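Hi R.,

As promised on Friday, here is the backbone we talked about, encoded as structure tokens. Could you run it through your design pipeline when you get a chance and send me back a sequence?
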């Protein structure tokens, strides 16, 4: 087998070539949206985790199951 080409293709026409040649580092360093997106994930992750824990607490699961049981009983 031969080694990888010494220079990239002029026009990357395959998906893997497009991904390999995409200048992600440039975009992360020079566009504000990437920094705010990453910061937003870090800030919102604990909030969503807390909501998840509250929604799936044993008490809430019992209430939900009871409500679903009543709803299904009213349809039959």
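Update: got your reply. Pasting your designed sequence below so it's all in one thread:
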């Amino acid at each position: 087998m031969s080694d990888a080409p010494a220079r990239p293709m002029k026009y990357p026409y395959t998906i893997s070539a497009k991904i390999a040649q995409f200048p992600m580092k440039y975009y992360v360093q020079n566009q504000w949206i990437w920094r705010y997106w990453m910061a937003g994930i870090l800030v919102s992750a604990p909030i969503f985790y807390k909501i998840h824990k509250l929604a799936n607490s044993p008490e809430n699961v019992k209430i939900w199951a009871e409500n679903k049981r009543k709803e299904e009983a009213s349809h039959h």
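One thing I noticed while checking it: The chain has a mean pLDDT of 89.

Thanks again,
M.
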